[in-house]
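Escalation from tier 1.

The customer reports that the assembly of two entities below gives different structure tokens on two consecutive runs. Tier 1 could not reproduce it. I'm attaching the input and our single run for tier 2 to review.
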Amino acid sequence: MSKGLRLDNLRVALEGGSHPLIPVDGVSLDVPAGQCVALLGESGCGKSLTALAMMRLLPEGVKVVRGDVSLDGESLLDLPERDMRHVRGGRLAMIFQEPMTSLNPVLTVADQIRESLAAHRGLTGRSADTEAGRLMAAVGLPIERLSSYPFQLSGGQRQRALIAMMLAGDPTVLVADEPTTALDVTVQAQILRLLKTLQQERGMGLLLITHDLDVARDMADRVAVMYAGQIVEWASRAQLYGAALHPYTRCLFQVLPSIDRRGGRLAQIPGMVPAPGTALVGCRFAGRCPDVVERCRSEPQALRELAPGHWVRCGQAEPGRLASDALPDARDASSGDVKATPSPILELRNLAVHFPIRKGLFQRVAGYTKAVDGVSLDIRAGQTVALVGESGCGKTTLARAALRLIEPTGGQVLLAGEDIGRLEGEALRQKRGDMQIVFQDPFSSLNPRMRVGEIIAEGLAALRPELDKAVRATRVTEVLERVGLPADAFGRYPHEFSGGQRQRIAIARALVVEPKLLICDEPTSALDVSVQAQILNLLADLQQERGLAYLFITHNLAVVGYLADRVAVMYRGRIVEEGEAAALLNAPAHPYTRMLLESAPGKGMTKVPEPGTRARIPSDGCAFADRCPMVMPLCRTVAPELKEREGGSRLSCHL
Amino acid sequence: MRPVLLWTDGLIFLLVAGLIAFVVLVRRHEHLRAPWRKVAANPVAVAAAIVLLFFTAIAILDSVHFRLALPAGPSGAVHYSPEVKSVLDVLSGPLAEQQEKSYSAPFATHLFSRETVTLPDGRQLRTYPRLRYGGASLHDPERGRSGDILMRTAEGLAGGALVWLMLWLGLKPVYGKAASRRTIANTLLALCLISGFLVALATHYHVFGTDKVGQDVLYITLKSIRTGVLIGALTTLVTLPLSIGLGVSAGYFGGRVDDAVQYLYTTLNAIPGVLLIAAAVLIMQTQLESHPGWFETGTERADLRLLFLCLILGMTSWTGLARLLRGETLKVRELDYVMAARAFGVSDVRILLRHILPNIQHIVLISVVMDFSGLVLAEAVLSYIGVGVDPTMSSFGNMINGARLELAREPVVWWQLAAAFVFMFVLVLSANLFADSVQDAMDPRSRRNA
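Tier 1 run:
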């Protein structure tokens, strides 16, 4: 009897409808105590359902129909619910993605930790207080935070509090379902390091469910790659990242954008994940696999051990065939790199957006939240400028102010030399066609009550009312075809499309009015990596064809490295560093830029910086001073200005 | 015969036309149809909808009004009776005319209270006199009554079953192979049997007894249905423009508009609703009474009073929905597709019509159906305290009000209250059940679980 969690041929079925759907089909997995196992897969592959199944928390109508889950040799599926309650949160604990909703907002952190202590360890009173204090120290929270309510904590602190709660039951295995997806990179790095340290110190098993290859690389001892309800590859980290054998895993590595793939096209995985309802005989990846042979489609594939501890569900894979690239290689660096024309399309001059904070009975303005505080930025035709920063730094507000969806408080927005801040009514409307926006969430950006054709034609109808219906329809069809959507998309509703297709619709909607500038507000962060590659390729092609300028707002530095010409790093409403992408990413000058780059996952857990708290907003001095590892007395009194440096870059730092 | 179009008649027809237009619209759009299909698959909802339709049908029959021509006078000019009748009055035939002297219990053959009767030979006797119509055909009511009632019940049930069979075969193209056709059949059967029973017995007995002035309670109850349905439906017609217009513009435009609307509804909400309604009704009442020349008939006056009651109820009850819609609009207006439309310079009106309204319509629908039953009950309460509909108009509230004092009698005169209660209960219950399933089907949160 070994310590740890074991899944044996687990099969989960969704009942109802004509035939049951099988979202999880025969998953076997071992999470021994003292090891970290990553369950890696794209959305919809069944990884979260697997986790819920082993916690016995499956939603109504979903059932485990076969297989077993055992913890320390004891089968969990047969336990009566009363005993299962002790296991859950006790020996088997789980933390969820959204720290906001996993804590009860009306109880203090102490109440919630003590609840767990009382339920699983029988600790109450003084001893519970001591233990709670110890747990807080273990997760790196100051002990005063025990009396805080969840809303008083930042996202990272909340996740720490949740981890403390889960540790209260002294679990053998901790299940973490995308624990850092909702967090900023800097916070993500801290939480991941905390989880890793705890796992090693306590000899816990850690099952990390993630979609992020880099996070898995930093954390896991062994990795299970899941595809369409099955584990397709199960190997140690070194084996997987050194020599992945399953075509799907290899494809995943190739679609990742990175600074090395700059200028080239990203590889794409054709097709889509088969729907859980489709009856599949052969390999589930066969329809998209570059190495597919006839046998794959007709014969079911079993997991085979190709090397010691390296299991692969592929009949074709052999340890020897490592060098072969699964996908047609990325195209060479684009020869006709559109040279930036000298005149900028969009110039922001000292743009500021301040939101008044109102207080008291008469709504007196007590102060301002300076969401955007004096930003100057140029974007030239055919150029991609990436705007990088943590959440809440004012990136999205900047984008909306540039489009005049929000009225700027100060400064100018020049579109092809003309100040659109002064335009009103009809004149402004004429200009709106020149710049368009693509949003992050492809689900909220399309009106669910309108057909795709209507959605795309809306911009034309508003901006070019002189066009008659037939012309409009032709244009819509053309643009649909250009972004790679089927022609029959015209009459269908958005809910019939996948996330990637919806993002294509959103791009088509922006494109149909022939803008010169496209503002992309995290256009790929809600998408899976394989879909992200398709969208990034599409954006690159469109830029080449039409000389579009992009303002690309993102927090994903790999994407920045892949496609941006220039990068502007934003912190608390101001640009702290701006310059050529390659130069800036390779030799960051500002401490904040360095911190962001070092926090990005995928480099191992060596150099994670410890960013300080962000609680205080300094009235004068550098806004970053509180978190800066290289802070000097000068930083606290005098705010640095954004100064030009040699090589056309700008920096705002006293160093 | 001269047709009379009362104000509320016109509005109820308008409402029916609107309902039909809505059904047509829903049938054309797949995304609108999908939730209704869910409603149609729910047996409880289907049964409730049929009962509601039945009630509505009675209300519509009762809304086609006319005045009969009087026998031509010596001058040859045609005069019309001052009494306004409806199709329902004609259909219910003798029910309206078979008026007794005073109270009589259900299925009674004698009056409820003793009276002094002068016998043919001049003697005076205190006894329970025979009813003029109830069980009049019986020679010996003591012995023949039960048999007669049983006979007629059997006849009525058989007739009802026959009608049901014909309906079932005739409606085949409508229900087709619908999943809930068993429910449809059962509900229709229940309605047919009950109707058959009532039709067979009502002509010879007072099924629900008679009231103080000897009117058949069943007839009054049937007439009350129209009042209840009208109050429920027309009031929402008044509230909708107010709550949608004000709520959505407060949420969408924000700023001063929002302040103004919020000020308005918080102020309105701060005034006790009943007080406001009572004050408005009393003012209106004196106005109507001081201008008797405005109306040709008493029915017209009562009708106008009903309309005003709907208006007043609407004025005070729009705030809840407006508040809900304001919140929902605040949410929707921040969604990216609205942002995208604004980035295209789409005008506010178009954004409201194409992006906001279609995405909040489910809330409107849910609250309309939910409010219906609340309003029917509100009418009863208001009429009970004397600020509701005209006292001459049949309504559940007036019936309850009329039965109030008699409950203290010994033995109790219970049937008036019971009849009002049963009918109102069925109407409100089916409206509630229907509303519940509409909410289940429309609410995106429950859709996710499904």
